[in-house]
Structure formats: structure tokens, C-alpha cells
Design goal:
Largest sheet: 4 strands, mixed
Number of strands: 4
Number of helices: 11
Distance between the termini: 66 Å
Strand order of the largest sheet: 1-2-3-4
Structural class: alpha+beta
Strand content: 5-15%
Length: 435
């Protein structure tokens, strides 16, 4: 019983130390370490009870402990890990596949007879512990940071990755269970199949990750092209405005002479009417500024022109600082994603309406964009983040600066809100492309 509990404790301890190295904790989880400790203690107590009732370690008791440990560690890892839920599932299932192959390698070594002085159970325990330590060393030497950086770059396709990981897990586990129960003592065959499956698993994961990465790069290029087109349109509109301003200045002498002529001849009413018409014409060509941030103003002018041409009602009330912690590209991607979603989702409405409200409160920027939709929702409901195209990438941008994104349906309105901390020092602006 003591040896059985020692084996279980060593394996659980390896999971306890390894899992935190594969992902950063969520900022809203205050004590992630306490969650992991609670899971470890629970599994220790549960294993002791199961082993006591079963009279020791067996296939049945070991299987029950394995399933409960898988669920407990999996749920806790997904709960405390930063990023989408699908990302946490993918990382954890991938780790389980690695550990499953480690278990098969331990089985191969235990039946090989290469270490006759140690029992097969001891060889398996030492091999599993050694493989866990090796995994921790690989993560600590930079592989963990590189893995998180590459996975953070994946904004779409998580569903495919999760499905691939789960299917791979059940496929490989079925093969390993076949090796364990059918070819239990055939070392050559077991090790050969293990080596082939390892090569296939590594190759398959590498190909899938590379494919998803290339697809995201293509989507990013398309998004940047659309953003560049919008900004080019805004630049062209600004050029037209400047040209109109030059024309007005050029005609100013003519207007002054005409007004003086009216006044000199006593036609005061004609002069008043002319000034009213001229004032209305100038007002119509005024370049609108909603806030101090030039990037936000550019996007707001684009929204105003699109609403004017499409007949959609528009309301903009904005107080956005001139300098933000976001770079110009990040701010543009954020506004572009929210605005495009608002226009797309309001297109089917009989009475399209878009309202933008932005304000600062202390060291926080609150931004809200709401639009009317065709479908009426009876109850206020929060929208899952991944259900709106492009919102996952917006969440990734905001999460870099501890910002938050929320989407809701209220009646016939769709509302997207985000908050962005503005608490930075003056010197911290140097590393950002100020808008």
C-alpha cells in the first residue's frame, strides 16, 4: 500500500509541477496556486480511498484513479489558464498524449529486462517521473515560452485543433491499450509500434499547427489590406476637404467684394441672405472631429460617411485620449473589427442604427458600440466571445493590456463593450506607436 501511494504521489506531483509551466494564469483568477494545491490534495485523498478499498494497485483501481485525475487536472488547468477555453483544452490534451506515450515507453522498458535489479513497477514509476522531469526541463529552457507565443498567434481554428487533439488522443490511446493487453511481453513489437506512433504524432501536430498558422497569417493580411483601404479612403476624403478649403480661401475675396457691394448699395437683406447661404455651405464642408485621437476620428468619419450613404442612423459621443497604450495598428484593428461587425449585423434590420459611446473614467477607457439587429431577443443575454467573427482577435489585442471585451443582446440591439486600462507613465509611451 505504501509503495502504491508513493507511485501515485510521484505521478501527481509531476503533473502539479508541469502543468503551470504550460500556460500563464488568468488575471481574474486570484489564487491559481491554491486551486492546483486543492486538486493535488483531493487526488491524494481519493487515491488513498480507492487503493484501500481495492486492496492495492490494479487495472481497475488504477483506471479509476487515472480517469478522475484526468478530469480534475483538466478542469482546473482550463479554469486557471489564460486565453480561450479551446486553447486550454488543446494544451492539456496534447500534454495527455505526451504522458500517454511516456507511459508506453515506461511499459516497454519494464518488460525489456534492461534493469533487472529493479521491479517492473519500479521501472515504470521511475520512467514516468523521469519523462515528467524531462518535459519540465524542456519547458523551462524556452520551449514553454515559445509554445505560448506561437499559440497566442493563433486566433482562429481552435475548434479544428481541439477536435484533432481529441481524436489523436483516443486513436493513440486505443493503440497503446492494444499493446498493453495483447502484446504485453513482446518488447520488440511494443517498442517498434511505440516509435512509429511517436513519429506520426509529432509530424501530424507539426503539420496541423503550421497549417493553422499560415491560415491566420493570410487572414491577418486580408484584414490589414481592408484596414489600409479604409484609411486610404479617409486620406482621400481629407485631401478633398483640404482642396475645398483652398478653394474657399481663394474665393474669399470674391465673397468679400460681393458683400461690400450689397452693403454699399443698401441691399442689406440680400447681404444677410447671401451670408446665411455661405455659412451653411461652409458648415457642410467642415471636417468633423469627435475626440482628440486622430485614428479614432478617422474611423468615425468613415462610419459617418457609410451611414450617410446607406441611410443608417448614427450617434457618436466620444472622449478618447490622444495617446493610448495601444499601437496605431492595434487600435485600428480593434475599431475596424467592431465597426465592420456593427454594419454587417445591422444590414438586415429595417431601421438600421449605430451608436458609439466612448468615455474615460479615471484610468480606464470605456468604449461601447451598439447596433440594431433584425432578430429581437426577449431576455438580456451575453454572447459567447467566439460566436462573433473576428472578436477572438480583438480579445487577444485587449488582453495584452489587461483589457476586457463583452458582447450582449438586449432586445433588438447588439452591444459590444470593451474596457482598456490607461494607467501608464509618460516614459512608457516610447515603446508604442502613438496614434
Amino acid at each position: 500500500m505504501l509503495w502504491d501511494m508513493t507511485r501515485v504521489t510521484l505521478i501527481f506531483l509531476s503533473h502539479f509541477l508541469t502543468l503551470p509551466m504550460m500556460s500563464e494564469p488568468r488575471p481574474d483568477v486570484r489564487h491559481p496556486g491554491a486551486v492546483r494545491i486543492a486538486v493535488f490534495i483531493f487526488l491524494e485523498v481519493f487515491s488513498y480511498v480507492v487503493l484501500s478499498m481495492a486492496g492495492g494497485f490494479s487495472i481497475a483501481s488504477g483506471g479509476i484513479i487515472l480517469i478522475v485525475a484526468f478530469l480534475a487536472y483538466g478542469l482546473s488547468f482550463i479554469y486557471v489558464s489564460e486565453g480561450p477555453v479551446q486553447k486550454g483544452i488543446f494544451i492539456f490534451v496534447t500534454y495527455c498524449i505526451y504522458y500517454m506515450f511516456a507511459a508506453e515507453l515506461a511499459h516497454c522498458l519494464s518488460i525489456s529486462g534492461l534493469i533487472p535489479s529493479i521491479s517492473s513497477e519500479g521501472v515504470m514509476t521511475l520512467t514516468l517521473t523521469g519523462m515528467s522531469i524531462l518535459y519540465m526541463l524542456i519547458l523551462s529552457l524556452g520551449a514553454g515560452a515559445a509554445m505560448n507565443e506561437s499559440l497566442d498567434g493563433i486566433r482562429r481554428g481552435w475548434g479544428i485543433l481541439v477536435a484533432f487533439a481529441v481524436i489523436s488522443f483516443f486513436s493513440y490511446s486505443s493503440m497503446i491499450m492494444l499493446l498493453l493487453f495483447v502484446f504485453t511481453y513482446d518488447f520488440v513489437l511494443s517498442f517498434s509500434v511505440f516509435a512509429i506512433m511517436s513519429i506520426l504524432a509529432v509530424s501530424a501536430f507539426a503539420i496541423v499547427l503550421q497549417t493553422i498558422s499560415l491560415l491566420n497569417e493570410r487572414n491577418d493580411a486580408a484584414s490589414q489590406h481592408a484596414q489600409q483601404t479604409l484609411l486610404e479612403n479617409e486620406l482621400e476624403a481629407e485631401r478633398e476637404f483640404l482642396e475645398s478649403a483652398r478653394q474657399f480661401r481663394h474665393d474669399m475675396r470674391h465673397h468679400n467684394r460681393l458683400i461690400l457691394e450689397y452693403l454699399n448699395t443698401g441691399n442689406v437683406e440680400e447681404a444677410r441672405q447671401y451670408l446665411n447661404e455661405y455659412s451653411a455651405e461652409i458648415t457642410g464642408h467642415t471636417r468633423r472631429e469627435w475626440c482628440r485621437n486622430r485614428i479614432a476620428n478617422a474611423y468615425f468619419r468613415i462610419v459617418a460617411r457609410r451611414c450617410s450613404s446607406s441611410g443608417a442612423a448614427l450617434s457618436i459621443r466620444a472622449d478618447i485620449p490622444e495617446v493610448l497604450p495601444l499601437s496605431s495598428t492595434e487600435l485600428g484593428s480593434l475599431l475596424d473589427g467592431l465597426i465592420e461587425h456593427a454594419f454587417a449585423s445591422s444590414a438586415a434590420s429595417d431601421d438600421p442604427f449605430i451608436a458609439i459611446n466612448a468615455r474615460t473614467n479615471g484610468r480606464l477607457l470605456f468604449f461601447e458600440i451598439r447596433n440594431r439587429i433584425a432578430e429581437v431577443h426577449q431576455h438580456d443575454a451575453e454572447v459567447p466571445e467566439g460566436s462573433c467573427a473576428g472578436f477572438e482577435s480583438l480579445h487577444a489585442i485587449l488582453s495584452r493590456y489587461d483589457g476586457m471585451l463583452q458582447c450582449r443582446h438586449i432586445g433588438d440591439m447588439f452591444i459590444a463593450r470593451f474596457t482598456l486600462p490607461l494607467g501608464w507613465s509618460d516614459s512608457s509611451h516610447e515603446n508604442h506607436d502613438s496614434p
